[in-house]
């Protein structure tokens, strides 16, 4: 039998390094390996990555040449900042006159606190003229004397005029230090925030460069020819060379790997992803098939780092129960893992003999109200996982499953203290635990205006079953646990797409300027190995901040899933009807391409206009987009420009808030081109033409328009 080509994802966690192999064609999981993270090895985490890869190839029977894609995610950058294990940054400010006043203030970054009592190590030097090589070199020598291990050059308005920062780097190059310029990290205005982002990036640069070199050399030595990719904090991956330039993009990439897995494996189009470990739950949002991203807060300050919007709650599968006055008063934040106690539900019935409840203080400084059971086999923690198993909410094949009888025996002593039965006691535990999670989920649904009728809750992580099923039950939302939830993060790494985001502040941006930003993002992902014919670019123009943003994504190879698993017409119709919450008989096919079908119905309300909700369903039967009221038209590439000009003209609104073109999406071949981020009609039509320019004149095009109020 022919060995399949595989995609390998490796997730380097604080304790374990997980690796998975996914069939490159069917995207099915073929193997998974867990090894201890090698923090203390002479090669650092690189050793664990290579060990995990070797064992994975042995398990699956694949050779290094069978690896079509290899990526890893790491917490190394995050941990470096959390632990204060960073390099001393030499910051060179550039400017004369008023500019010098602003750049000299950048020396205050030395006051940024990394951890309690430990500040960012920074040395500052100033040069008036960046072209004065002698002055720059004197500044570098002074910074080196003060311990600088990496250099940053920053000058006001370098986004528009980068020559000064570049001249500083050119003059400093003979000293052999890693270097970066502020304009290379972000192209957004704001000297202070731009430089702060560049300084934090530089602080982790030497450590990340060393790891990158070790991993790259080890993978090459192992015989893998596929380019090594690294997980980004916005849910995509980047080439190793890009990571060497901007290692800060790997900060907060741990949660991003999990939601990438939910996007690609679970095909979530609208909802919340909850990645639950033993101690906490990371909550993120998927809206219209895309992860929610925002500028991250690092070291207590906002930055220009685009990262997954993830909100963490201190409740996980191992969270311990708190009691007082004969009731459950809360769950967590202390977990059994931190307290050094085993879960009661994973004990044997014999070990649970003669169990009695006690209230303890797990760690110094904790309140003495955490419930444990002291039994024949020792002391055990009562956890969220115990309660979920007692109620039968943990699937038989789940990572956290145990014998329900044992779980009920673990809860029984607490139920007696509470004066109730086991089921009620377990329910009260889960109610207390998910209360904090529900508050955050509800807030994120409001913040991102998710449609609760179609939004789903998807649980990942080893503790998923302790939170997601009960939250779904309590909220009335649809919920499910992701397949292979315990390795959803490395699966996300294996399936992630190459991603690049380009941002420019362009007041009154013209069509040409918007298209130029789009083209820059497209070139960037192609340069990192994405197949040009599969690149998708989403463009957003924010008229309030004058920001033009282009997000490009693409695969490093064209992936074609096994057609034998595709949904039939009836299954896709049912999926659309379920999403529309109506009878399949009331749903009609409005349009379609080879990859997508557009379904619609009509809703009539008294004294209100008729609405035409629409759902776009892919060949797997997954709803990829939903619109509350949309217009759908079919044409060809040749006829699209004229038709789109007319449709956009008819649907554009004018008012005190300015011009608002409709939200436009085009179905082209296997793609949904999302142009909804542009409000001005002319740039919108220009972007539409750019999507059409390389396609055959007779190729069908489906336009889905949503008018904006």
Span between termini:
58 Å
Largest sheet: 6 strands, mixed
Classify the oligomer.
Answer: single chain
User: If helices are DSSP runs of H or I spanning 4 or more residues, what is the number of helices?
Assistant: 20
Instruction: Tell me the radius of gyration.
Output: 27 Å
Q: Would you count the extended β strands for me?
A: 38
What's the overall geometry?
globular
Mean pLDDT: 88
Report strand %: 25-35%
Across the major sheet, the strand order is 3-2-1-4-11-12
Helical percentage: 25-40%
What would you note in describing this structure?
The structure is a single chain. The protein is of the alpha+beta class and about 700 residues long. About 30% of the residues lie in helices and about 30% in strands. The protein is globular and about 80 Å long. The chain is built from 20 helices and 38 strands. The termini are far apart. A six-stranded mixed beta sheet has the order 3-2-1-4-11-12. Helix 12 (about 385-390) packs across helix 13.
